[in-house]
Specification:
Layout: E1 2-7, E2 10-15, H1 27-45, E3 48-49, E4 54-55, E5 58-63, H2 74-90, E6 94-100, E7 105-110, H3 117-135, H4 138-142, E8 152-155, H5 161-173
Antiparallel strand pairs: 1-2, 3-4, 5-7, 5-8, 6-7
Helix pairs in contact: 2-3
Length: 174
């Protein structure tokens, strides 16, 4: 089989054939060596990996209750914190920083890109809404749903991670 690729005026031709069985020193051993050296590098750079992706996807997420009601206080706040940690643990996401205000939630989280931040937020909002409204019936009487449909999400790449963490920690003080 012959493959022809054309980029602008240049032509590249590559002949493909069935490869023989892998031999010592072939591509597999090179890949293993590169993966081994990458794992060592990974320890210092704090990257994560799953079966086929190495990633560092950190997101700053903010969402609020319906009508911006100040319902995230007392027992509701502590239970919400437990539920968010539980959901993130179930979906192998790491919470870097979390701050709960009376009328909104700040979350700095690292998520597998194949799972996606939108799925994680959907699961967090869905589970917390259902459980909190079952455990605290006064939330049912005041609002048709606990959370708004929208949320804010931003990747943490433009600003250093320490600056975002500091911003989230300061939210409680202001």
């Amino acid at each position: 089989m012959v493959i022809k690729v054309i980029f602008g005026n240049q032509k590249f031709t590559k002949s493909r054939r069935k490869s023989s069985a892998f031999r010592y020193g072939d591509i597999r051993s090179k890949i293993k060596l590169e993966l081994y050296s990458f794992k060592i590098y990974n320890v210092f750079m704090e990257y994560k990996s799953n079966n086929n992706v190495v990633y560092s996807c950190k997101y700053h997420v903010v969402w609020c209750p319906k009508y911006l009601r100040k319902v995230l206080v007392g027992n509701v706040k502590s239970r919400l914190k437990e539920l968010i940690e539980e959901v993130c643990c179930n979906f192998k996401s790491e919470i870097i920083e979390m701050e709960l205000m009376s009328d909104h939630v700040h979350l700095l989280v690292e998520v597998d890109p194949q799972f996606g931040i939108h799925r994680l937020i959907k699961r967090i909002k869905g589970r917390t809404s259902r459980v909190l409204r079952e455990e605290f019936p006064d939330l049912k009487s005041r609002m048709p749903t606990l959370w708004t449909n929208s949320y804010f999400v931003s990747t943490v790449g433009a600003a250093p991670l320490a600056v975002i963490k500091q911003y989230i920690e300061k939210q409680k003080k202001t």
